[in-house]
Amino acid sequence: MENEKGLLLVLSGPSGVGKGTVCSALRNRESNIVYSVSATTRAPRAGEVDGVNYFFKSREKFQQMIAQDQLLEWAEYVNNYYGTPREYVESQIEQGNDVILEIEVQGAMQVKEKFPHGVFIFLSPPSMEELKNRIVGRGTETDDSITNRMTVATEEIDMMEHYDYVVVNDEVELACDRIQAIVLAEHCKKERKIKQYRKLLKEVK
Amino acid sequence: MENEKGLLLVLSGPSGVGKGTVCSALRNRESNIVYSVSATTRAPRAGEVDGVNYFFKSREKFQQMIAQDQLLEWAEYVNNYYGTPREYVESQIEQGNDVILEIEVQGAMQVKEKFPHGVFIFLSPPSMEELKNRIVGRGTETDDSITNRMTVATEEIDMMEHYDYVVVNDEVELACDRIQAIVLAEHCKKERKIKQYRKLLKEVK
Description:
Two copies of one chain form a homodimer. Chain A is globular. In chain A, helix 5 (128-136) packs antiparallel against helix 6 (143-160). Chain A has helices spanning 19-27, 59-67, 86-94, 105-114, 128-136, 143-160, 172-187, 190-204, and strands at 8-12, 34-35, 38-40, 54-56, 71-77, 80-85, 99-102, 119-124, 165-168. Chain A folds into two domains: 1-33 and 98-205, 3-Layer(aba) Sandwich (Rossmann fold); 37-97, 2-Layer Sandwich (Guanylate Kinase phosphate binding domain), CATH 3.30.63.10. Chain A is built from eight helices and nine strands. Chain A starts with 7 loop residues before the first strand and ends with a helix. By secondary structure, chain A is an alpha/beta fold. In chain A, a hairpin with a 2-residue loop joins strand 5 and strand 6. The A-B interface holds A 1, 121-122, 124, 127-128, 131-132, 135-136, 150, 153-154, 157, 160-161, 163-168, 177-178, 180-182, 184-186, 188-190, 193-194, 196-198, 200-201, 203-205 and B 1, 121-122, 124, 127-128, 131-132, 135-136, 150, 153-154, 157, 160-161, 163-168, 177-178, 180-182, 184-186, 188-190, 193-194, 196-198, 200-201, 203-205.
């Protein structure tokens, strides 16, 4: 169907949950998903290509991009800036391509402010069983340790609230299946389809 | 994950769109979807088994079911009642099974009143191209004919408004892929998952 806009997919979740691994596995699958390229001020490493691995920018240029609202989200780690250029993402979506951003939760919340209609996917730790085991441990944990784990788990779950979907990363391939199903289902959402049909009727008239 | 309730899936759409064919193809696939069994007052045909093809009921019994709100939807065609028994559907959902109802649009709207949280899937005619061709025809149509087709198309599209998803039935197998993706995606919805996580946290506490 022509003129259908692409989806903005945001894959996020607690650090260490396996966002990068899932995203890499997804890249190896047949799909039309486009992967967003981040901008950074850090120096290119051997073999890294500008516009492929990153858009490499000077500090001045990056700060200018921030000032001109050219980034969907950004953060500073260890004296280097990292961010998602808005232009690349928006042009891909306009062309009808689904774009995925794999980012930290703070970045995801920045994107949500700018793109509330994006599809926000929270990658969550392996399983409920695993979560319970991690909290309760093997019965050898101190009360303090259990309290601490409960706090972390509760914070993670409270973050879910801001997302549309929760994908459990029990197995990488299963997590990919779920993400692909979400993409396909989102394309079938009534709101998207009815717009296309109404447009067609107008054209015919 | 234990204690997760099943989904109520309602597959509907204009008559002749291929609901039955898509539903049969879906049955041949590996999935945990349970198919709702309708109740009817018509006589069993050769080979039809009570509780499998239909729940066969007398007129009196059927009217009693209507009066006691034991049907999610019902209608009368050619002097026979047809309907969806509520009890079977609800018990399957409670057991965690996804149940699919393949019904006419009028029935789907009745179900929506009783089960607003069901997943309503509108099966739509083959493709946008096909729809346009059907309306405009081969350039040999009268203005009246085109107006009539426009009215039908507009009515169909207005019906979509009440559904969650629109699945184009361009190819039966593709339509099945989309429905299965919707089922998987619905299970990943934040609202469902967060409830389970919060429940687990409460249990641990």
